[in-house]
Amino acid sequence: MLTDMTQSRKRSFLVRAARTLASLATPLPFAVWITGGCAPEPAHEAPSGAAGTGGSPTEDARPTKDPIDAADAASPFPRDLPRTAEMYWLTKIGWGSAQTDRVCARGNQDPVARALCAKPRAPLSSFEDLLRAFWPTGRTWQENYTAGLTFQSSALAARLVSVINPAVILTSLAQYAPGDDAGAPPEFATDLAISFTRGDQLVELLGIDGQNQRLNFYLLAFGHACRATDNCTATDVLGSRSERDWTSWTLYQDEDIEDTGLSCLSCHQSEGPGNPRRFLMREFTPFWLHWGLPSSAFLTLGCTGGAPPVVLSQSPRPDATAIIPDLAGTFARAHADETHLAGVPIETLIAQRSGQEISFTPRRMRATVLGRDGSFPGRLDNNESRFAIEEPHQMDTFGTLTGQYCQNGTMDRWNAYRNTLRREGMPVPYYQFEITESEAGTKARADYAGFLRDASSSDALDILAPLVSDDVATVIGFVPEPESDAPTILRQMCGRCHTGTESPALKRARFDARNLDRLSREAMAEAMRRVQLPQGDPGLMPPRRAGQLPAWAIERLGSYFASR
What we know:
The chain is of the alpha+beta class. Helices cover 31% and strands 12% of the residues. The chain has a domain at 58-276. Helix 21 packs antiparallel against helix 22. The longest helix is centred in the first third of the chain and has 16 residues, at 7-22.
């Protein structure tokens, strides 16, 4: 895609022109109703339980044009939840203690189930309460837990994550002595990972069931007091208050949400059922473009072909070849009035080499699995052949950086990598350090508190998605490329969830974006109906959190389906 860095400027013009033309387009009348798609269809269960322990206040559906109401007008919707497609999907599955009970009845043997299924249920009213459930005797940095920051993500909150609103990954630590290295320093095992991004009212959880050699993925959704009183501001949703004033919580396991746009296994088990479940970290090896580094850190790159080495520094220094963004410093300035993020001191987070630290996690999780009988593996035995868990699509960050900064460097490696991921419908790590290159991004970086005060919406995606420019969103894969034909758009924008390899019991298996010749007329008609739904509608495809189809792309799909 990028044979030349100047192509990004050309793409910016093309995207702007296409969207201008698209604003004149009208929806295509190509739709009939069939049962299908990714959104869940089970009967709505009324929320139950006390606030703070799994329940939630509810309200009767309001006679408005709100798509949440329109989708299920007879059902109550919890007042303490944002009226988003994601929360609609979850409440359709179940909300409150009854749903959490279903998860707990499975008897999983991992830290998430042990902590959150214990009776009486933990009265979680803050993120700190959640951490206390996992570390009841307290947390000690680099002894029983660690954490890291990432400034670009391919997880559920991908479109919310940036240098000013990073994702925080916390993992448990437990020391052990490697089995075959007498006298060697101890290593760590990990059985818990937590990912949290402000704005979503969701927490992603991964628990290692060592006895059963299984990775269990969970999603915890929580209600918030400002939603219950219908007076949330952008600062409430994306500031420190998002980590407190919780009014309810509900737990879901991967199998509960597999047929929704919140599916865990479409990414963490992307090779299909029966294949390994994995801890995903695209930037798995040095160097790390989007993970936190201390502001004083610099990168030295050895170049090939006799070219001189390159020194990338976040601040001026005599030997610096290029100055790169100080992401940790930008983050710290944006949150200058705060001391903690996700329960971790900000000073600790910005001093951490986050990419290096979190890259140890798969090895540490594998140690938990292999050491389930108390006999931990030796250093050489802790490898993928014993238990596959590592990222299957690792980015060549060294090649990406040398391609940009070394003399005669090329972007061939990154281009090939991007093409591989886009064929699978997956978002791509950006090739540069910073993704907030838009006008809104510049304003937010300069004064994040003021940016939030000025925001007219309390919807996190409405607020944060514009920070990423059209250029960057296209490169990452949030929107399709203007030159793409309809089959390419479908594969790239829908292929992550609609793979053709999922269980036929799932409704999303009815649409195979990677094998379009298999599509029936009914499936094509339903797909066309879904892509034309209003923004915020629970049935919209692709879901807003995954990406967006401009009107020109929808028109292209309509022409393609009509010709079939």
